[in-house]
Amino acid sequence: MIKINIVNTISFSRLLSAPVILWMVLENNLQIAFWVFIYAVFTDLIDGFLARKLNLVSEFGKIIDPLSDKLLIFSVFITLNFVNLLATPIVMIILLRDLFILIGTVLSLLFKKKINLTPLKIGKLTFFSQSLYAGMLLFNYAYLYDLEKIIKYFGLFTVCITLISGILYIIRWYQEIT
Q1: Among 21, 30, 141, 159, which residue's Cβ finds the most Cβ atoms within 10 Å?
Q2: H helices of the chain, where?
Q3: How far is the C-alpha of 87 from the C-alpha of 50, rounded, in Å?
């Protein structure tokens, strides 16, 4: 049975914000997309804090929280790519990293191997970097504020940290299943 609590409700609201952001970007309402994105990122901080502080960690929360995070980031990056505001290679690197992590998880389940699903610290840094990068992109295009140089270098950092993170997850899981 799914245990509904305030933390899961907050995570679920983040899940619902992703299609709103997608729609706003497609409708060229980038200011609204930016503010909904800021709300969504804020909910990620709040739900984790409350879950630990109020001891409301649940199995459902362990699924909905990372699912909401991934859907949020993927929807922003894929949609910005679709409207030609973000280069395809950047989106592919971000998507492929998580695809490899998903494949590793599925393979471990198929081979009945127990793997550690606890996120690496670099994985948390990667999500933070991707969120900040997405926010910068939305802000830049919504408010036509020239962040191009910062975006260029921070995008490069985000791609590098994403690649390193993906490699470290693959190494950890390889070591665990062999």
Answers
A1: 21
A2: 6-26, 30-53, 59-82, 88-110, 121-143, 148-177
A3: 36
